[in-house]
Amino acid sequence: KREINGHDVSLTAKEIRRYTSYAVQSIRCNYLRHELGTSFRETAFLIAASEDFQRFTMSGDFTFAKCPGKSRLQEFSVLMSHEHIKKLNEMLYSEFSNSLNIGKYALSKALDTEVILMDSFCVESNIHFPVDWVLLRDAVRTLIKSILCIRRHGLTHRIPEPNTFSSKMNSLCIEMTNSRRKLNAQKKRKWIFRKMKSLVRIVKEHAVRYRNILDQRWEESDLSRPETEQILKRLDNVLDKLPSAIKQANERIISGTLTESGNKILSFYDESASVIVRGKDGAEVEFGNELLIAEQKDGFIVDHQFYQDKTADTNKLQAYLDAHKSGIHAIVADRGFSSKANSNKLEKRDIYNGICPRSISELAEKRKDPEFCKLQTRRSQTEGRIAAVKRFIRKLSPCSSFEDKQSSISWAVLSHNLNLLARLMIAAQKSKI
Question: pTM to 2 decimals?
């Protein structure tokens, strides 16, 4: 149904076919983009250049093709909320775990639903390492690029060549980096930082001036009002955060005091990133958001949860158990999920506790259980599953807002599951030959 003037009107057969075709094309395009690991623009180019991709995305064939552009691909990516994508994933799991559908999908067996293996990892944000003075460099780059954009569209004001400011900031960044190895390094760094602050204030004054010119005289340019709003939003984002970034860098370099993680600006462009200290080898501190995945024995991601704030693994397990009331025989996870409260909850729910305990003596006792050893051996493959999911997520999250990240993660998990099911079906067909 659809709503017209406050009344629900039933869809015609033609509208149902059109909307269904649009939804199927959306899923196929989103899967292809995550499989290739490309941007909207690059994916649009690849579809236009490949007859196979055109057929897969239902865009026509060699004789007649109407390929989606980057804007249409972006529309596909936000067509469904992450809640709807998760529901679609649950429907997929329910369909392929039903033993009555083995022949329908040419599977050798239905997906196992009794054993759930869990782990969490950090989805890193696409930000620089948060060295305080690097934020000042990012601010100058963004403001100068915005000024150049405004000038290209016909609005100018007296100003030195904008690119000279970027060159000066780059030179100061090189000096700041090289000052670590020199005599009186701390004094040298303070002197360079003061020059950086002076340059940033000059660039800020020019940016504010150009921002007001654009807001008041945008009709004199060749920009539309929505395009103008986008440039103003980009400028305001940096200008609003710049005083806090300067204060943060000043406290660290000049005063020698540290800023608490909760009050620290990690990036001008990603407000949802968190500082995650997990003490892992090669990644003592990570910057991004945590993702919990729960897979079954065949590798299908049954459920996932994306967290905006740092959350203990023990709390993640409790939330998962509260959300899934039945149908689970065993829970398997690493020692980070182990706690007395979780053990009691699993025992109360009559779920086998396959979580690796923190206590060495308790672990030695549990290793006498053959089922525990078997499940923990299978849990080692969950690290490989994380790598497989990361391939669809890509190394760095391309989104800035938490809602967009959630949607992108949900599409990546769904794409991974579709890829897995396709490989399971192909393997089942080969085994019959």
Answer: 0.84
